[in-house]
Specification:
Oligomer: single chain
Bound molecules: flavin-adenine dinucleotide
Number of helices: 6
Strand content: 5-15%
Low-confidence stretches: 155-163, 169-182, 189-199
Length: 206
Amino acid sequence: MASADHVYDYVVVGAGPAGCLLANRLCADPACRVLLLEAGGRDNYPWIHIPVGYLYCIGNPRTDWCFKTEAQPGLNGRSLGYPRGKVLGGCSSINGMIYMRGQASDYDRWAEQGNPGWAWEDVLPLFKASERHYAGNSDVHGADGGLSSNVIPGTSSTPSARLRHKAASIRSATSTVAAMKAVDTFRSTSVPACAGMPPKPFCDRP
Ligand SMILES: Cc1cc2nc3c(=O)[nH]c(=O)nc-3n(C[C@H](O)[C@H](O)[C@H](O)COP(=O)(O)OP(=O)(O)OC[C@H]3O[C@@H](n4cnc5c(N)ncnc54)[C@H](O)[C@@H]3O)c2cc1C
């Protein structure tokens, strides 16, 4: 028979950004008992916390489900690795740390196709509410949420800041060479387990 210790109001499956965010919101109410289940291990693997360390996390069973695609005729029958995070923090523990939103026009098109609440003006307040942007509140950014974002060098003023973000700088330059739009806004820490939240806030809650 289940003991009272094992009775929960909510069970959240998967401790990626979405699961962490949801669990964090739910257990902000001390009366609410929340169980957050994660198939992967803890996020105390060093490469998770080093920018561009994702190169050592992808394809690594410590942090990745190590999925493979079906053999692709368009790739001469090759099968490709398809990384998905299997660790506290989910894919945000193995991702590129780029802070990037979808295209406004995509959201508007989804709304036009009969999905109320999906227009850009509907979702922008939610993005802003989740964000702690380095430049403060503005029309398009929020500064009071849990997901920190920071600017990468070039604009970082101190040598130590430039050093700290050197890897991110290389990434940005690479994307320019690859004819992708340069991105200058990164998640400012590689502490992903509670991605989207203040640092490890709910890990200590009962
Ligand atoms: C290699 C890579 C690079 C990326 N780079 C960027 C980037 O630079 N910028 C950006 O914005 N986004 C990036 N992304 C995308 C971003 O990380 C994801 O969109 C985001 O993490 C999705 O969050 P999620 O919570 O929906 O799912 P996930 O992060 O996938 O989390 C799901 C969690 O559920 C767990 N789980 C699954 N099944 C079970 C089960 N049955 N029981 C218990 N637990 C389970 C998984 O182990 C995982 O931890 C990248 C993704 C990858 C894979």
